[in-house]
Specification:
alpha/beta, 25 helices, 53% helix, elongated, binds protoporphyrin IX containing FE, transmembrane, iron, transmembrane helix, iron ion binding
Length: 705
């Protein structure tokens, strides 16, 4: 204001000198509310009175329009008006015409810009362009509106925060917003606000350079520029040398707060309200069931397609409603819960009865005979048949085979400019699973399996639309092809050409043969064998590949962990001396690497929640669950709960030095549905980690998740 004072005075002098004015309108756009609000008006009145007195003219009638956003505290301004009028009369005496001050709330722009929180050095060009062109269109609209409001010959003093460089991405231009952005992200990490809210927040602010202002005025055409000046102002608002750093800091914070507080409040405040309302929900879990019939299906589907992934749907609601919430997806009620107590109660069937249930479309893709879709009794039977396949006797040769695959794959890496870890891991796990389950490890058949399994996996996350061309339809077709391959393999084995195979398929068939003469014993049918082989591929391939990818990312980002890991692994190699294939026993000599694997599984929570269905009405932790509701144990929230793991977002394998709390580590589930392949998965992760650490000293890793 003090900087603009001279310019304002000059404008008034010119206006009054060149016009006989009986009534003068003065608008203070963005007047704010506080001790400084009427200072500008007071200075203008003073200037008008002064110049008219010198010209020996009567002081014109003054109509002052105070403008700011609707949220501005105009009441506060009006309360101070009587004292203001009295003071004016005292100071100006008789040379003071009538003065009417009114409030004109509202924005002097239209709707503002889109983008990130603000421009930054790393902003894509499109964001910078969006801000700049938004400024141009707002500024032009602003000038046009003023030109309609003002009388001919009227003058406007425009005081803007600007920048001295043509480039809006210089640190000086963006620094405060960078800091604010970082502060908001800290709140996101603490779970106090939603990341989505930060993403959708665009600072409605733009500091133009002189050239942009000039260009805007010329382009709009209603005004002529009499003077254009730039002043440098300290961001702490003064040059008080006596002030301590703390006081300067406070002043900076207050200055920034004056500008951004209302912007932030209107954008983020609803979230606080939700937290307050949470406890009123009674004993039915809180939540929004969305619109009739559709529920929140569309939000769920949108989350699946978004880059953040499907868990974002759960995370946002968890943030809004707390540890328990309910929603409606595809016509069914789903309750999500994220406490260790509820995990124990549900996964162990401690309260009421819960059975595993996947949504119909997933069950259709894995097949009606899969242990995932079986009734509780039948599940027990199938699981009992599959369980022996995962014994240490099977694991031992599997580890050696997987090690050979990894060594072979990594030896090819130096020939590439870069490797995508997720892709590499997926190729490896698919190869290893196909070999272990059905003895396929190369050639056309392997390629075919890889392709078809990928199609089935994709279909699991698609809308169950059965039209030609939809992802779900393609998944069903792929399932058929896999079933054909498996059927053919079973027939070949039965006709004798399966000799020498030592895979799961062979063992299941042999088991059936052995039991052939035992009348009482239930045997797995061919369809059951086929569906469960497919289930195991699906259950083991993507999950392990994703877990490996996350692990590489976490290790690469944590130098301290990497150093410790190196030390352990190189020590191990030194001890072995000769280059040899890893064995299951070797893996037991890698205690730190095992903790790295466990910590990666905790942080990544590859299987994010475990679905069950309530078979009867029951109550858990004071919340009622109705028969037929889907109940999901949200493992990821438990893994990232600061009351369960301190500093849960820090990658710290040493947190597993001691015993973990019961039901705090749910990467492989718990209870009667615990992952059958968990030792196999951990072994694959360890082997990969060992080979990566001991083969490559420094690689730029790339992972796509
Ligand atoms: C890092 C990799 C893996 C993770 C994180 C993982 C995680 C899980 C979880 C959380 C469950 C239980 C879900 C629930 O209770 O609803 C599960 C079940 C299962 N997993 Fe895994 N898994 C992995 C690898 C594997 C592998 C390699 C195989 C086998 C080859 C496998 C086979 C299975 C099977 C068959 C089930 C169903 C068990 C049942 O319903 O009785 N998984 N897995």
């Amino acid at each position: 204001m003090s900087v603009a004072k001279t310019a304002t005075k000059e404008a008034i002098v010119k206006t009054v000198c060149s016009n006989w004015i009986e009534s003068m309108g003065i608008a203070d756009l963005g007047c704010s509310s506080g001790p400084n609000t009427l200072v500008a008006v007071s200075e203008i009145v003073e200037a008008v009175c002064g110049i008219t007195r010198r010209l020996d003219r009567p002081c014109p009638e003054l109509k002052v329009y105070l403008n700011d956003l609707y949220t501005n505290d105009f009441n506060n301004i009006f309360t101070s008006l009587p004292a203001f009028y009295t003071k004016l009369k005292q100071d100006k005496g008789t040379h003071f015409g009538p003065c009417f001050i009114s409030a004109v709330p509202g924005s002097f722009y239209g709707v503002l810009n889109k983008g990130k929180i603000y421009i930054s050095e790393s902003s894509p060009e499109s964001v910078v362009d969006a801000y700049s062109s938004q400024f141009q269109s707002d500024f032009l609209m602003f000038l046009k509106c003023r030109s309609q409001e003002m009388v001919k010959g009227g003058r406007m003093v425009l005081s803007l925060i600007g920048r001295d460089s043509m480039d809006p991405t210089t640190p000086v231009s963006c620094y405060q917003w960078e800091l604010l952005g970082r502060a908001l992200m800290i709140l996101v990490a603490r779970g106090e606000i939603e990341e989505e809210k930060v993403d959708s927040f665009d600072a409605p602010y733009y500091a133009p350079c002189m050239e942009e202002v000039k260009l805007g005025v010329e382009k709009e055409g209603s005004f002529m520029i009499e003077a254009l000046e730039a002043y440098e102002i300290d961001w702490d608002g003064g040059d008080d040398k006596e002030m301590s750093h703390e006081s300067i800091g406070e002043r900076v914070a207050r200055t920034i707060r004056a500008v951004v507080e209302s912007m932030l409040e209107s954008h983020f405040v609803w979230q606080k309200r939700w937290y307050k309302n949470k406890s009123k929900a009674g004993n039915i879990p809180p939540g929004n069931e969305g619109i009739p019939f559709v529920g929140e299906t569309l939000h769920f589907m949108a989350a699946i397609r978004s880059t953040k992934g499907v868990y974002e749907f759960v995370r946002l609601r968890r943030l809004r409603y707390g540890k328990w919430f309910k929603t409606k997806i595809l016509g069914e009620t789903h309750v999500f819960m994220s406490s260790m107590e509820s995990g124990r109660a549900i996964l162990n069937n401690e309260v009421g009865k819960f059975s595993k249930r996947y949504i119909k479309s997933i069950a259709e893709l894995v097949g009606p005979h899969s242990l995932l879709s079986a009734s509780p009794r039948h599940h027990k039977f199938i699981r009992g048949r599959l369980f022996p396949l995962f014994s240490t006797t099977s694991l031992s040769p599997f580890v050696q085979h997987f090690d050979q695959l990894v060594v072979q794959a990594m030896s090819a890496w130096p020939r590439h400019d870069f490797v995508v870890i997720q892709h590499q891991a997926l190729m490896l796990t698919c190869k290893a699973m196909c070999k272990m389950l059905i003895g396929i490890d190369s050639g056309y058949q392997l390629e075919m399996m890889q392709k078809q399994v990928a199609c089935v996996c994709e279909a699991m996350l698609a809308l169950p639309l059965r039209f030609t061309g939809t992802r779900f339809y393609k998944g069903l077709q792929a399932r058929k092809r896999i079933m054909d391959i498996l059927e053919k393999a079973i027939n070949e084995r039965r006709s004798g050409s399966g000799c020498g195979h030592e895979d799961f398929l062979q063992r299941l068939l042999a088991e059936n043969e052995n039991k052939f003469n035992e009348e009482e014993v239930e045997r797995l049918t061919d369809k059951e064998i086929q569906d469960n082989i497919l289930t195991m591929i699906i259950a083991g391939q993507d999950t392990t590949a994703n877990a490996i990818t996350w692990m590489v990312k976490f290790v690469e980002e944590n130098q301290g962990v990497l150093d410790k890991l190196m030390e352990e692994q190189l020590q191990f190699v030194k001890k072995r001396k000769t280059c040899h294939i890893l064995t299951l026993e070797d893996l037991n000599e890698m205690p730190y690497a095992s903790k790295v694997v466990k910590e990666s599984l905790r942080m990544a929570s590859v299987v994010q929640w475990f679905p069950r269905v309530a078979l009867e009405d029951c109550e858990i932790e004071g919340f009622k669950i109705k028969k037929g509701w889907n109940v999901n144990v949200d493992a990821r929230s438990i893994h990232l709960d600061p009351t369960v793991y301190s500093e849960p977002n820090d990658f710290n394998p040493s947190r597993f030095n001691g015993e973990s709390k019961a039901y705090s580590f749910l990467a492989f589930g718990m209870g009667g549905r615990t992952c059958l392949g968990k030792n196999m998965a951990k072994a694959m992760m360890l082997v990969f980690l060992h080979r990566l650490i001991t083969t490559y000293k420094s690689v730029k890793y790339s992972y796509s998740l």
